[in-house]
Structure formats: structure tokens, C-alpha cells
TrEMBL record:
The keyword Transcription belongs to this UniProt entry's keyword annotation: yes
Residue spans crossing the bilayer: none
Database matches in InterPro entries: GAF-like_dom_sf, Sig_transdc_resp-reg_C-effctor, WH-like_DNA-bd_sf
Gene Ontology biological process terms in this record: regulation of DNA-templated transcription
Protein name: OmpR/PhoB-type domain-containing protein
Gene Ontology MF terms: DNA binding
Amino acid sequence: MMNKQALLEKRQRIDQFRQSSSLSPLHAEQLGQSIASSWQRSASAAIPKDRMAAPINHQHRRGLNGALEHALQLCTEDLKHIAQQSSMVIAVGDIGSTIVWSASSNQMQRAAESVHFVEGGQWREELVGTNALALSLKTQQSSCVFSNEHYMTSIQDWVCYAAPIIDPYSKQLLGVIDLSTTWKNHNSLGLLAAERCSSIIQSALLEHQKQQLFIRAFAVPQILFNGKALVLTPRQIEILAILALCPQGLTLDTLHQALYGERKVSVGTLKAEMSQLRDILGGMLGSRPYRLLVNVDADFLQAEQALDAGYLETALKLYTGVFLAKTESPFLCAWRDCLESRLSDAIFKANETDVLLKHVAHFPEAIDAVERLIELMPKTHPVHQTLLKFKDREDF
């Protein structure tokens, strides 16, 4: 633990940086580039100056990944014990920075409740400014935010340590865990403690996911079964995607219609496909109705959950390419059209220019994002003129 004098000097340096009209490269390096960048984003986010607590979302669990929810049920007692023993508050956030579970020591409980560092608290950077929970999600790395590095004045007496929670099989980001206490108790081992808590959850995920199927269907399709890539035909991947979207199961005729539509393919061909898939999955494919008997997750399911929860940035990060671009399945084509329509609608309602600029950088053909950026960016901004020229070329 740092001595009190060293901590006071650290706070004074941060105050000097905050009072500067702009950070020099040297000062940004001393502060930490991730904090400096977060300050810039926070300053442009139009956060109310008098905001003293995070907004509350009472529907917060709709954005919670199912695997993460089950894992938390297995390890909450361990995490509660850590919170009490360390005089901290521990919070788990979903992929959109909304707290889905928390436990507090007696010392931190009142402080946590007063700023809504509790279930349902929305800690997205654009809502409350610089904080470790949101920063760790954005960088997908462990983060420490000390005292007045926080944007909101009500938490400038805190120090927070956060670590991302990564699915051990798919390597997808599932959420984040944050440990917070008062700045006077700052400890260089705080980040290690956060990472340890993350590993506790990841161990619980392994316990829960003893039979786990993960489907990647954006860009290059891939199926992972218990962490290992399977060699499957495009048709078999389509079948798994349909069953993932219909967890209640499908009859043979309904599955045939969803997969082939009016194409003249015999039912016997589909039966043969299902028999092969059952062998590949070690019997983890039920019949009457056909359904998957393993824990299933997918990048497209996560993107849908992100849209349901209003997390556009997360949805766009997951959307790395067209969903099963070569499929002729009427069911999957209809689902893809619906997803793309929802994405486009969310883009036209978005206000985060940095998120949209990243999307356009990856998908220059995303004309909906280009048009929204033209609406959002000042006409004097050099990027605005570039976007206009690009749109004109696309229209032509």
C-alpha cells in the first residue's frame, strides 16, 4: 500500500492535469493514455455537471449473458466473502457497463448505494464519464482509475480496479468485474485482486460449460465445440444456427422448411445430415423435436442481446461481417434481414460519433452510418466534407 503522502501527491498531480486546457503528450503519458483518452471522450459526451449518481436501469438483466448468469450463481459466496474481507464493493457489469450483480462490505455499502454502484446502475462512459468498469470493457484489459481520475465528483474519493471477464471457450468478452474502495486504501495489488475475481468467474464458466457449443456466423463461419473447432459443411453450420435460434426444438418437417424452403431436397437428405451432426457432437443432438442438448452461444445471439439492451457499440463490435452471407435458407435470410434492419435503425438513432466512425472504418459501405455521421458532425469538421464526398460517390 502506498503511504498517505505519496497518495496525496498523486491526487495533486491529477488535479493539475485536470485544470489544464489540454494535455501535453508528456502529461498524457504520465497520466496514462487510456485515462487521457477517456477524459477526452467524457468531456465531449455532454454529461450533466451535477450528475452525482449513475442512471438506474430496472430492466438490467435483459442484457445479461446466460452463461455469465449461471456462473455467478456458482461463485457469489466466494465474491461476497472477498468484498467483506477487503472492505470493498464488488460489482459485475454486463457488456454494456450495466451492473448485474454487486456485493458490498459494511464500510462501502452506503457509498455504493448513494452513487448507484448497485444492480441496475448504468456505468457507461457516455453517461458517467471515466470509470474503471467502462474503461476495462472498452480496452478489454485490466484498468485502475484512481481518485480524481474519475469524471464524476461523487466518486473521486474512490479507487477502482476492473478486469474483463472472457469466455474460456469462445474467447468472447462477456462482461467485467470491478473492485472499489476509498483512495486512501489504494494498493498496487488491487488489479491482481480484480483479475483473481475474474478468474473465479471464468472457472465457474468452465464448470457450467462442460458441454459448450459456440457458433461464429459473422464474416467467416466457425463452430467451436468445447473450445475445439469442428470441420463442418456449410449446410451443417446452417442447421446449427437454426437450432440455436429455436432452442425449443423443431420437427423434421419444420426444420426442412426452414433450411430448404421450396427447394426440392428430400427429407431423407436432411435425416442424413442430422445423423452426421449427432455423431460429430457426441450424441448432443436430440430428436422429436430436433434440438441441441448442449450449452449454446453465438456471436449473432450476443449481437441480438446487445441490441435488446440498447448496447449499439457492443453490437457493432460483434458484427464483423454479413451473417452467413452465402446461405439460401429462407429462415436464416429472414432473420438476417431483421437483424440488419435493427442495426440500421439503432445507427440512425445513435449519438456516439466515435462508435460510428469505427464502424465506417471497418465497413466503408455502411451508408446508414455515413448518413448519421453527416447529421451529427459539424459542417466545419474536415471529416464532414469527406463523408459528403463518399455519400455522393455511393449515390452515383
